[in-house]
């Protein structure tokens, strides 16, 4: 699997990041099997969060033995300083880690949320100064994320960003404008860029749920490949998070391994134009 430098972190990340949201209701046995699959396929980067149900507890028994093989990124949704620090310490304990490679303010979706999380950023940056975490970042969903992150980078010295990159969101002209402005700023500051929702398809809208994701992902290998290759072809993107479903994981890994170079972005956008946007989460994640 191809690797790319994750900005100023210097980490040569596998282009596929193992998204631990897939383990939110999975046993340690299932999580261990998926972790081994990802490692065997060349993945060297794990993304996990307390909000991913049982993921931390399910991964915890397996992580110490392979800690030296993984860049481990964790997150917090908390706002107050004491709560953020307590959650950081709890995540370290559950995952059997002495420290994290990356710690991120999770799900910062708009300027109001950015304002509310000021104390959280202070704690995260202090933890970086103390060496408890090596790098600091921000993640977010919704169509307002890229514009919000431009402001976040103005306020804070962050090392990474993580936001939606897919043919469907790129088909929204306002989103694409904001995202490309963010990518330009990240390039100037050497900020690492990670994509989420590369293989997202549409909201569930009452359809039978066959996956554990809050949105319906693609499962057809060609469609997954189109989304993954699109994300990896957007200039500045280092890697994408695999969808939060253990059955889609192998398909996403196949897509990552088959990436051979930039694809036609406009063709991918056109192919996905008929799909409904999965955002805003407040309306669509039902």
Number of helices: 13
The residue fraction in helices comes out at 40-55%
Q: What does the average pLDDT come to? A: 98
Shape: globular
Biggest β-sheet strands, sense, barrel: 8 strands, parallel, barrel
The ordered H/E elements are EEEHEHHEHEHHEHEHHEEEHEHHH
Strand order of the largest sheet: 3-4-5-6-7-8-9-12
**CATH architecture term:** Alpha-Beta Barrel
Level-1 CATH class name: Alpha Beta
Strand content: 15-25%
**Uncertain residue ranges:** none
Structural class: alpha/beta
Distance between the termini: 35 Å
Notes on the protein architecture:
The chain has 286 residues and is of the alpha/beta class. It has a single domain, classed as TIM Barrel. The chain has 13 helices and twelve strands. It has an eight-stranded parallel beta barrel with strand order 3-4-5-6-7-8-9-12, surrounded by six helices. Helix 4 (81-95) links the parallel strand 5 and strand 6. The termini are far apart. The mean pLDDT is 98.
Topology of this structure?
Layout: E1 3-5, E2 12-14, E3 16-19, H1 28-40, E4 45-47, H2 55-59, H3 63-66, E5 71-76, H4 81-95, E6 100-105, H5 111-116, H6 118-130, E7 133-139, H7 145-155, E8 160-164, H8 167-170, H9 173-189, E9 192-196, E10 200-202, E11 216-217, H10 221-233, E12 239-241, H11 249-257, H12 265-272, H13 281-284
Parallel strand pairs: 3-4, 3-12, 4-5, 5-6, 6-7, 7-8, 8-9, 9-12
Antiparallel strand pairs: 1-2, 10-11
